[in-house]
Amino acid sequence: MQDQPPVTLPHPQTAALQGRLLAGENVVATQEVDLDAQGHFAQGLIALTNSRLLAFEPGQGSWSEFALAPGQSLKLSDHGGLAFMELFDTHQRLARWRFTLACNPSAVRFVDAFDREVQRVSGHAVREKEEEGEDSAFDFGEASKPPSTWVLLRLWRFARPYQGQLLLGFALMLGATGATLVSPYLTMPLMDRVLIPFQNGQAIDPGLVMLLLGGLLGAALFSWALGWAKTYLLSLVSERIAADLRTATFEHLLGLSLEYFGNKRTGDLMSRIGSETDRISVFLSLHALDFITDVLMLAMTSIILFSIHPGLALATLVPLPFIAWLIHLVRDKLRTGFEKIDRVWGEITNVLADTIPGIRVVKAFAQEKREARRFREANQKNLEVNDRLNKTWSLFTPSVALLTEMGLLVVWGVGIWLISHQSITVGTLTAFLAYIGRFYGRLDSMSRIVSVTQKAAAGAKRIFDILDHVSNVPDPVNPQPFENVTGAISMQGLDFRYGSRSVIRNLNLDIRPGEMVGLVGHSGSGKSTLVNLICRFYDVTEGSIKVDGVDLRRIRVSDYRRHIGLVLQEPFLFFGTIAENIAYGKPDATRDEIVTAARAAHAHEFILRLPHGYDSLVGERGQGLSGGERQRISIARALLIDPAILILDEATSAVDTETEKEIQRALDNLVKGRTTIAIAHRLSTLRKADRLVVMDRGEIVELGPHDELIARQGHYWRLWEAQARRVDQEDLEDHAVTPNPSAHTANA
Fold first, then answer.
1. Mean pLDDT, the chain, as a whole number?
2. pLDDT tens per residue, range 402-444
3. Which helix (H) or strand (E) holds 85?
4. DSSP symbols for 680-741
5. Across residues 20-41, what is the average pLDDT?
6. What is the four-CA torsion angle of 474, 480, 485, 491, rounded to 10 degrees?
7. In this model, does residue 446 exceed pLDDT 80?
8. How deeply is 423 buried, as exposed, middle or buried, from its count of CB atoms within 10 A (0-12, 13-18, 19+)?
9. Which of 76, 171, 303, 579 has CB 3.0 to 4.6 Å from 614, enough for a Cys bridge?
10. Which candidate, 572, 548, 550, places its Cα nearest to that of 630?
11. What angle (nearest 5°) sits at the alpha carbon of residue 558, between those of residues 557 and 563?
12. pLDDT per position as a tens digit, 204-213
């Protein structure tokens, strides 16, 4: 007999995959396979990169690789409950992998990704497919395939640390279940040796009665004690499993690249980590426990029933095939329905996540009714999906109850016939009916758990969709130490694409340590993308970025970003105190260090004017502070970590002239002795830059100091002249609309 299928991908394979990546090679998609060439369960992994197909062969423990080439194809097929993925070139089949149909939905997406990469390698235009499923903006259609309940077995990865407690809980459960089965068994001697003889004129034996009643009381107390201990212990374990699941999901989410978050809605991710893990916790602490208890009760009751009378026991099992058929009938509908409900609920959360943080904009444009309508529509869709599901469920539950009642009637009929033929006693039938009541009760309970199991499976699938995602910006397997950074940056042959759209093309640029470089160009010229690549929010498609001669892909991401200070156009402040926000990049900073950074950022004076100074609370996203105040706090935050490389992204574009002067003085302190890369549409703010990099359509078209570029009268000069004319025009318009007091008086 084969082993059970593995349900988790071991970490060594993921680490080994990252170690096999070449310079400039990015993972596009991964596919888990769970069968070897003989059809036995074994774990494997297929990874698609921008240049190769890498496969960890299941059952062999070795890697194979295939370079992407024009004419290749990846085909999916299934036969006899198994799925096959085959790689072909123009002449022959190159490889074949097997897996169960549970892996098929992700395999469909993997094949689509492979087709797009082959099109790209072949030089054809790549047709981007709109992403389906939970990432659609407001799509409540059918999912590619309902989530399998096997996904719940993947939770064992989080249950493994508590296997000792789980084993003890199972032992307690076994004892408690056995104790509950004592009471019906004792009803046989109570009926046959006490009550029926008494009706026939015999005296009652007090000792026997006390013994039997004492046995009933003892069994009840023993069952209660074991049941309490079992429930308490397993509830504690299930809460810890759910907490570990939440933590692991959030930590994994933080490790993913910005590209992942660009395709996701905030409310949907919040829903997954919050409500889905809570649903799994409830399933583990209550319903899974009840299910195991039900299985034990059914098994032990069946053994007792067959030991009492095999014929009568067979009559008890008459409803089972019909109940099993009903469960099979509604299971897929429930799975699909609960996944729809999850997606609809994610949209409700999305509306809340959009509206509440943006409430100022909602009120400013008087769009309260519009947002209320969005919420009402999402809520109505949630109601409709639940109504359809409840229609199925409402028919299923009474049907199971009806079948169990019919089974009880069959047992009564067979039992009366057996008594009439002196085959069993009344006490035996009484005990049988007591056991059957428990048997059918547990059977009904097990049928009801189909619903909560499918809910938990749908939630687990959405959680593992996050955990299975591999970051496009991976840490190297053997990271290179990165200390004593001077800030020399070298970009050679840089290319970067968003999907099929080329954004950066063959860019070469060297930045000296301590140099200030300004990036200028029209919107969409690639300035922000270049900064994102330097920060390694994305990895380059081709070429390399080196800092102090070390390729960024050879450095651990966290080690590298500790040396980067980032000041954004729209500074983001967290809910907390002023001091906590300044010390965000260095949580162990002393108060003196915080104050020193605030002074250098010209923020100390306005902070002291706040009610509680540095301990004043900042509202969510910096509510309660002006734009200039928020910006100076973000500059202090960057100063505190003392970065070797400084990124300024439109740091003064959203403030008035006086505030800009204050921020500029703070920036002058910030850029001293640091390699600085500044983006600005207002070209006058970059006159202090050592060099200006003029970009157009992802390429560097000019490079040099301000005066030299003006003298060339090229791209930069045209940008400068356009801004100068716009400023002059704005001044003329301001003068034209200024009231003339003398004219006003004359008219009067």
1. 76
2. 777 777 778 788 878 888 887 777 777 777 777 777 777 766 6
3. strand 82-88
4. -SSGGGGTT-SEEEEEETTEEEEEE-HHHHHHHTSHHHHHHHHHHHHHHHHHHHHHHHS--H
5. 79
6. -60
7. no
8. middle
9. 579
10. 572
11. 100
12. 788 888 888 8
Structure tokens at 36: 């070897």
Give dist(CA 545, CA 118) in Å, integer: 26
CA 227 – CA 174 distance, rounded (Å): 10
Q: Tell me if residue 123 falls in helix, strand or coil.
A: coil
What does the pLDDT look like over 187-201, one tens digit per residue? 777 777 777 777 777
At which residue do the structure tokens 């009803």 appear?
187
The pTM of the full predicted model, rounded to 2 decimals, is 0.57
Alpha helices in 41-181 (DSSP H): 104-122, 156-159, 163-180
Q: Please give the pLDDT value at position 447.
A: 62
DSSP 3-state of 464: helix
Section 384-393 average pLDDT: 74
Tokens representing 35 are 């069968």
Tokens 């003890």 belong to which residue? Answer: 168
Element (H, E) at 339: helix 320-355
Structure tokens at 115: 């087709």
Which phi and psi angles does 138 have, rounded to 5°?
A: -155, 60
Bridge partner list, 226 = none
| 691 against 151, higher pLDDT | 691
CA distance 118 to 315: 62
Q: Residue 508: its pLDDT value, please?
A: 92
- The order of strands in the sheet holding 645-649 is 564-567, 645-649, 675-679, 516-520, 691-696, 699-704
Query: Letter for the amino acid at 474?
Result: P
With a CB cutoff of 8 Å and minimum separation 6, the contacts of 277 are: 242, 245, 246, 249, 459, 463
Measure the CA–CA gap between 180 and 442, rounded to whole angstroms: 13
Amino acid symbol at 47: A
The 8-class DSSP code of residue 598 comes to H
